[in-house]
Protein backbone atom coordinates (compact mmCIF):
# COMPACT_ATOMS: atom_id res chain seq x y z
CA UNK A 1 0.00 0.00 0.00
CA UNK A 2 1.53 3.32 -1.00
CA UNK A 3 1.58 6.37 1.23
CA UNK A 4 -1.83 7.99 0.65
CA UNK A 5 -2.81 11.58 1.44
CA UNK A 6 -6.11 11.77 3.27
CA UNK A 7 -8.52 13.96 1.29
CA UNK A 8 -10.96 14.06 4.20
CA UNK A 9 -8.28 15.04 6.72
CA UNK A 10 -6.03 17.61 5.03
CA UNK A 11 -2.42 17.50 6.12
CA UNK A 12 -2.56 13.84 7.12
CA UNK A 13 -1.64 10.73 5.22
CA UNK A 14 -2.09 7.01 5.74
CA UNK A 15 0.59 4.42 5.21
CA UNK A 16 1.02 0.72 5.75
CA UNK A 17 2.63 -0.09 9.07
CA UNK A 18 4.73 -3.12 9.91
CA UNK A 19 4.89 -5.01 13.15
CA UNK A 20 7.36 -4.81 14.92
CA UNK A 21 8.93 -1.86 13.01
CA UNK A 22 6.03 0.45 13.91
CA UNK A 23 5.13 -1.25 17.17
CA UNK A 24 6.10 1.77 19.30
CA UNK A 25 3.79 4.16 17.42
CA UNK A 26 0.94 1.66 17.35
CA UNK A 27 1.31 0.94 21.07
CA UNK A 28 1.42 4.63 21.97
CA UNK A 29 -1.86 5.36 20.15
CA UNK A 30 -3.72 2.28 21.35
CA UNK A 31 -2.52 2.70 24.94
CA UNK A 32 -3.77 6.31 24.91
CA UNK A 33 -7.18 5.49 23.39
CA UNK A 34 -8.06 2.04 24.67
CA UNK A 35 -6.14 1.60 27.93
CA UNK A 36 -5.93 5.15 29.35
CA UNK A 37 -9.09 6.72 27.91
CA UNK A 38 -11.48 3.75 27.77
CA UNK A 39 -10.09 1.74 30.68
CA UNK A 40 -9.53 -1.49 28.75
CA UNK A 41 -7.02 -3.70 30.57
CA UNK A 42 -3.69 -3.85 28.75
CA UNK A 43 -3.82 -7.66 28.88
CA UNK A 44 -6.97 -7.57 26.72
CA UNK A 45 -5.66 -4.93 24.35
CA UNK A 46 -2.46 -6.79 23.53
CA UNK A 47 -3.87 -10.07 22.24
CA UNK A 48 -0.76 -11.37 20.44
CA UNK A 49 -2.35 -11.06 16.97
CA UNK A 50 -0.64 -7.89 15.75
CA UNK A 51 2.22 -9.63 13.95
CA UNK A 52 -0.31 -11.46 11.72
CA UNK A 53 -2.31 -8.34 10.88
CA UNK A 54 -2.19 -5.76 8.15
CA UNK A 55 -1.60 -2.50 10.03
CA UNK A 56 -2.10 1.11 8.97
CA UNK A 57 -0.98 4.38 10.54
CA UNK A 58 -2.23 7.91 9.94
CA UNK A 59 0.41 10.61 10.27
CA UNK A 60 0.01 14.35 10.64
CA UNK A 61 1.85 16.85 8.43
CA UNK A 62 4.98 16.57 10.59
CA UNK A 63 5.02 12.78 10.39
CA UNK A 64 3.66 12.18 13.90
CA UNK A 65 1.38 9.12 14.26
CA UNK A 66 -2.19 10.15 15.14
CA UNK A 67 -4.24 7.02 14.43
CA UNK A 68 -3.97 3.32 13.70
CA UNK A 69 -6.06 0.30 12.73
CA UNK A 70 -5.48 -3.32 11.81
CA UNK A 71 -7.04 -6.14 9.82
CA UNK A 72 -6.67 -9.84 10.53
CA UNK A 73 -6.03 -12.16 7.56
CA UNK A 74 -9.71 -13.24 7.63
CA UNK A 75 -10.88 -9.63 7.08
CA UNK A 76 -11.74 -8.76 10.67
CA UNK A 77 -10.98 -5.04 11.09
CA UNK A 78 -10.24 -3.82 14.57
CA UNK A 79 -8.20 -1.80 16.98
CA UNK A 80 -9.12 1.41 15.15
CA UNK A 81 -7.84 4.17 17.39
CA UNK A 82 -7.70 7.90 16.65
CA UNK A 83 -6.09 10.26 19.15
CA UNK A 84 -8.70 12.64 20.61
CA UNK A 85 -7.52 15.88 18.90
CA UNK A 86 -7.84 14.18 15.49
CA UNK A 87 -11.36 12.78 15.83
CA UNK A 88 -14.09 14.08 13.56
CA UNK A 89 -11.60 15.15 10.88
CA UNK A 90 -11.82 12.16 8.54
CA UNK A 91 -8.78 10.31 9.87
CA UNK A 92 -10.80 7.22 10.80
CA UNK A 93 -12.44 7.22 7.36
CA UNK A 94 -8.99 7.37 5.75
CA UNK A 95 -7.79 4.39 7.83
CA UNK A 96 -10.91 2.39 7.04
CA UNK A 97 -10.63 3.23 3.34
CA UNK A 98 -7.05 1.99 3.25
CA UNK A 99 -8.02 -1.31 4.89
CA UNK A 100 -11.02 -1.75 2.57
CA UNK A 101 -8.81 -1.23 -0.49
CA UNK A 102 -6.40 -3.80 0.91
CA UNK A 103 -9.23 -6.29 1.53
CA UNK A 104 -10.46 -5.78 -2.02
CA UNK A 105 -6.94 -6.28 -3.42
CA UNK A 106 -6.75 -9.53 -1.42
CA UNK A 107 -10.10 -10.59 -2.94
CA UNK A 108 -11.75 -10.94 0.46
CA UNK A 109 -15.51 -11.34 -0.07
CA UNK A 110 -16.34 -9.37 3.07
CA UNK A 111 -14.88 -7.63 6.08
CA UNK A 112 -16.20 -7.62 9.62
CA UNK A 113 -15.84 -5.42 12.65
CA UNK A 114 -16.91 -5.58 16.28
CA UNK A 115 -17.90 -1.93 16.60
CA UNK A 116 -18.40 -0.16 19.87
CA UNK A 117 -22.07 0.80 19.73
CA UNK A 118 -21.15 4.49 19.86
CA UNK A 119 -19.10 3.97 16.66
CA UNK A 120 -21.69 1.88 14.78
CA UNK A 121 -23.01 4.90 12.84
CA UNK A 122 -19.48 5.56 11.53
CA UNK A 123 -19.28 2.05 10.07
CA UNK A 124 -22.88 2.20 8.82
CA UNK A 125 -22.00 5.35 6.81
CA UNK A 126 -19.28 3.27 5.13
CA UNK A 127 -21.68 0.50 4.11
CA UNK A 128 -21.45 -1.91 7.05
CA UNK A 129 -24.61 -3.47 8.44
CA UNK A 130 -25.29 -4.91 11.87
CA UNK A 131 -25.53 -8.69 12.20
CA UNK A 132 -26.83 -10.16 15.44
CA UNK A 133 -27.52 -8.65 18.80
CA UNK A 134 -25.38 -6.24 20.85
CA UNK A 135 -22.82 -7.83 23.17
CA UNK A 136 -20.16 -6.81 25.68
CA UNK A 137 -16.49 -6.94 24.76
CA UNK A 138 -13.96 -5.71 27.32
CA UNK A 139 -16.97 -4.44 29.28
CA UNK A 140 -18.03 -2.10 26.44
CA UNK A 141 -21.24 -2.54 24.38
CA UNK A 142 -20.47 -3.69 20.81
CA UNK A 143 -22.28 -4.87 17.69
CA UNK A 144 -20.96 -7.18 14.99
CA UNK A 145 -21.04 -5.55 11.56
CA UNK A 146 -20.23 -6.77 8.06
CA UNK A 147 -19.50 -5.21 4.69
CA UNK A 148 -19.73 -7.39 1.58
CA UNK A 149 -16.95 -6.25 -0.75
CA UNK A 150 -17.77 -8.43 -3.73
CA UNK A 151 -21.46 -7.58 -3.61
CA UNK A 152 -22.27 -11.18 -2.69
CA UNK A 153 -23.40 -12.11 0.79
CA UNK A 154 -21.28 -14.71 2.57
Distance between the termini: 26 Å
CATH architect. name: 3-Layer(aba) Sandwich
What overall form do the CA principal axes indicate? Answer: globular
Strand arrangement within the widest β-sheet reads 1-2-3-4-5-6-8-7
Strand composition percent: 25-35%
> What does the average pLDDT come to?
92
Number of strands: 8
User: Could you give a short account of the major beta sheet?
Assistant: 8 strands, mixed
Keywords, separated by commas or semicolons:
single chain, 154 residues, alpha+beta, Aminopeptidase, 8-stranded mixed sheet, 4 helices, 34% strand, globular
How is this structure best summarized?
It is built from 4 helices and 8 strands. It is an alpha+beta fold and 154 residues long.
Description of the molecule:
The chain has one domain (4-148): Gcn5-related N-acetyltransferase (GNAT) (Aminopeptidase), CATH 3.40.630. Helices cover 26% and strands 34% of the residues. It has 4 helices and 8 strands; from the N terminus they run E-E-H-H-E-E-E-H-E-H-E-E. The protein has helices spanning 23-37, 42-45, 91-105, 120-125; strands spanning 4-5, 13-17, 54-59, 65-71, 76-82, 110-116, 129-137, 140-148. It has an 8-stranded mixed beta sheet with strand order 1-2-3-4-5-6-8-7. The radius of gyration is 15 Å and the shape is globular.
Amino acid sequence: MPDEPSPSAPGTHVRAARWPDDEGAIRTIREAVFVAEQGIPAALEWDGRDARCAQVLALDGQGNPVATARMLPDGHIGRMAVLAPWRGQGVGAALLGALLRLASAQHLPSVRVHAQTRAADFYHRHGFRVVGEPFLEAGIPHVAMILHISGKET
